[in-house]
Design brief:
This protein folds into two domains: about 130 residues, no CATH class; about 150 residues, Up-down Bundle (Four Helix Bundle (Hemerythrin (Met), subunit A)). It is about 50% helix and about 10% strand. It is built from nine helices and four strands, in the order E-H-H-E-E-H-E-H-H-H-H-H-H.
Length: about 290
């Protein structure tokens, strides 16, 4: 959202909490949920940006430090972007017309300034940075991008064949993301599955698949949960080696998931006469329970 200081209209009130207090979400959930975003250009008033961050005064002190650093450096921000999403820090990025080295130098000055002024042992819950204007990218909506699952699939394959443990871990994460985005698009076509009370995380996606009340839907949920668990391990568990064989196994599971999801999608396709046989059988099972 581009704006002149209007607070972000977002259902994610808990996103204004620190990740510790927002821990009710699963750890992989934030990768699936859209981010709320506000942008500012021209003359920037601290209060407008603070309001977009929920009006928190501790974050307000951070905002004022950032603007002061840029003013003293005679580097007025061309654009400021506030991003808020569930289960992650709120962020504020100032984009200036400068090269990468200059931005990094100013970013270092900014972090030193924050350390001097924010003396609490608790972090302010805001990631603040100074970035090159050339890096600026308009907010995208992955859900509207039909090719995102295929690109994550290609990335998983590429990371797998590059070798090295970190690439193998990233391959497992990309495999999960490919399966997740494909599943999310597929269940989105089943309109009566859209009523989720669990936001839009991994648990909600599994719930939507299971709510179909078909063996096929539950099997897909089981397989997606396995890929999710493996991706979480690849990201957070470093006590054991993440081998090439493990990454290859996850890639093959992902490939099979895509095949099974395509069969499910075709079986659930609707036509002018109503739901297909699979969905009709599931609906009948719902009525029998």
């Amino acid at each position: 959202m581009s704006g002149n200081g209007t607070p972000i209209p977002t259902p994610y009130a808990d996103a204004l909490l620190s990740p510790v207090r927002a821990g009710a979400w699963d750890r992989l959930g934030p990768m699936m949920r859209p981010l709320a975003r506000a942008e500012f250009t021209g003359t920037m008033k601290p209060r407008d940006i603070i309001n977009a961050l929920g009006g928190d005064e501790e974050r307000g002190r951070c905002v004022r430090v950032g603007l002061q650093v840029l003013e003293e450096a005679v580097r007025p921000p061309a654009r400021a972007v506030v991003t808020i999403g569930p289960g992650r820090w709120a962020s504020l990025d100032f984009y200036i017309d400068a090269d990468c080295r200059t931005c990094c130098e100013l970013d270092g000055i900014l972090q030193d300034g924050l350390a001097e002024r924010i003396t609490s042992v608790l972090p302010p819950g805001l990631s603040l940075g100074i970035r090159p204007l050339a890096e600026y990218v308009q907010a995208a909506t992955p859900e509207a991008d039909p090719g995102i699952a295929d690109r994550f699939r290609a990335c998983a394959r590429d990371m797998l064949h590059r070798g090295g443990e970190m690439n193998q871990r990233l391959s497992a994460v990309c495999a999960y993301l490919s399966a997740m985005y494909a599943a999310r698009a597929a269940v989105g076509r089943l309109g009566y599955l859209d009523q989720s009370l669990l936001e839009d995380g991994q648990e909600a996606l599994s719930w939507r698949l299971r709510r179909h009340r078909s063996v096929e839907g539950r099997a897909l949920a089981q397989r997606l949960e396995r890929l999710s668990h493996a991706a979480e391990g690849a990201l957070y568990e470093f006590s054991t080696h993440f081998s090439f064989e493990n990454a290859s196994y996850q890639f093959e599971l992902m490939r099979r998931f895509h095949d099974q999801l395509e069969q499910f999608r075709k079986a659930c396709r609707t036509d002018a006469d109503g739901w297909s046989d699979l969905t009709s059988r599931a609906a009948y099972a719902n009525g029998k329970r």
